[in-house]
Amino acid sequence: MTAIAPRRGPTMHLYVVVWIGLILIVGLEVFLTYERLPAATLLACLLGLALIEAALGVMYFMHLKYERPALFWSLIPYLLFALVLMDHFWPDALRLMRQRMPGP
Amino acid sequence: MRAQAGAGGLTEGSPYGIPSRKLGMWLFITADAATFGAILFAYGYLRLANPNWTHPFAFSPTIVNGIVMTVVLLTSSLTMVAAVATAQSGRTSAGVRWLGVTMLLGTVFAALHLREWFAMIAAGWRLFQNPMGGSPLFGATFFGITGLHLLHVVCGVIVIGVITLGFRRGRFDAGHVETTALYWHFVDLVWMFVFPLVYLMNVR
Questions:
Q1: Residue A37 gets which letter from DSSP?
Q2: What is the pLDDT of residue B148?
Q3: Touching check for B28 and chain A: CB below 8 Å?
């Protein structure tokens, strides 16, 4: 069997700091929601903050920052690429909205 | 790549430096992330294509409940990393305790979620029924997305329970706890997208 030595991870102190940061970001999301921003601006802000939360979680709680870089480069760019490809559906949603028949 | 002699002949070292089960979990997580991504994109598509989309959520009780659920789930991730840290340092009983706390928090999250579901169902919400008169697709997307996430949470609580029992009896090691933790953190991360997109984008 191949022996795989455990790699050094973050300390509990760092985990708690990340946890506090994540909770503060959730608070910021709720605050922005009630600032009555335009829908597109709010969506961009919320998505950006959710991506920061995901990055913090993946890098620290899931230890990806402390694994070999090959794992990151084998997983994350391809997942992001697959998600970006889904963006191609938006123009069709807008087409549907324009084609909607007016109500009676 | 370095080849090493093993009991059954030559085996190659992992190119990622992690055990196979952990790599398998990462592959599952990326596939599941793409699934949730597709569902959230479909939700966005339906929302954009329906100008009469409903915004039913008031700050109290729905958003307050959502904030409490989010804090509970984030805290369960913290207790899970504590479980992994204690398990890796060989403190089995402390690891079992932290796993128990994580299960408890996961159960609280599921209970809060179900309470909210039952309140919405009592108010007339169904998969294809909107009591507020807007697009009936709201119920389908809301119950579909949150239901799939809730299913992941319930499965996670059950798996953590199985791993906890095995870890306490010595059948599972710290590596199993760490692999389970990866799944649990992923469930937490999915909620970081569900809460803003499904709840906060639909406040009154």
A1: -
A2: 97
A3: no
pLDDT at B5 over 60: no
Evaluate the omega torsion of the peptide bond into residue B61 and state whether it is cis, within 30 degrees of 0.
yes
Query: Which of B2, B11, B39, B192 is the mutation pick for testing A, counting most A CBs within 10 A?
Result: B192
Residue B3 within a domain: no
Q: Quick check: is B10 in a domain?
A: no
Tokens representing B72 are: 């509970």
The predicted-structure confidence for B144-158, as pLDDT tens digits, reads as follows 999 999 999 999 999
Tell me which residue has tokens 């990622």.
Answer: B16
Give the DSSP letter of residue A67: S
CATH number at B63 reads 1.20.120.80
Interface check for B12 against chain A (CB to CB < 8 A): the answer is yes
What does the DSSP 8-state code read for residue B99? H
Smallest Cα–Cα separation from A30: which of B61, B204, B56, B195?
B195
Given a contact cutoff of 8 angstroms between Cβ atoms, the answer to whether B20 and B96 are in contact is: no
Residues of the domain holding B43: 19-202
Classify residue B118: in a domain, yes or no.
yes
CB B69 within 8 A of CB B109: yes
Reduce the DSSP state of residue B140 to 3 states and report it. helix
The tally of CA atoms less than 13 A away on the side-chain side of residue A93 is 16
- B3-28: average pLDDT: 76
Q: Which residues of B touch A23 (CB under 8 A)?
A: 71, 74
Q: How far apart are CA B143 and CA A32, in angstroms?
A: 25
Q: How many domains is chain B built from?
A: 1
Which tokens is A80 given?
A: 């992001």
Inspect the interface and report whether the beta carbons of B4 and A2 lie closer than 8 Å.
yes
Q: Do B144 and B126 touch, CB atoms closer than 8 A?
A: no
**B14 belongs to a structural domain:** no
Output the CA–CA distances (angstroms, integers) from residue A43 to A50, A65, B47, in the order listed. Answer: 10, 28, 12
